[in-house]
Design the sequence.
């Protein structure tokens, strides 16, 4: 799993038939302190994350399992982060 920050949405009205009614988010991959490690990744969102939220992401075959293992997806949002701690201190709190 990876951490990401939602920075926007991606709209694609013409798409593969295997991607019906899916919402796409633009996310930056981040480290636990919020430093951007990779910009502009497109992730499928099935849980309703919003812009500015920190999310949990899965890639590859794990991303496809979020739906039905036949949908062509490589990055999926699987959780919205409430808090990140390191040692005894909170690094992030929603």
Sequence:
């Amino acid at each position: 799993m990876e951490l990401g920050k939602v920075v926007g949405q991606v709209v694609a009205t013409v798409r593969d038939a295997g991607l019906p009614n899916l919402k796409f988010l633009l996310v930056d991959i981040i480290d636990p302190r919020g430093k951007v490690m990779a910009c502009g990744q497109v992730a499928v969102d099935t849980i309703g994350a919003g812009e500015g939220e920190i999310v949990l992401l899965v890639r590859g075959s794990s991303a496809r399992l979020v739906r039905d293992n036949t949908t062509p997806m490589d990055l999926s949002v699987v959780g919205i982060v409430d808090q990140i701690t390191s040692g005894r201190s909170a690094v992030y709190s929603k």
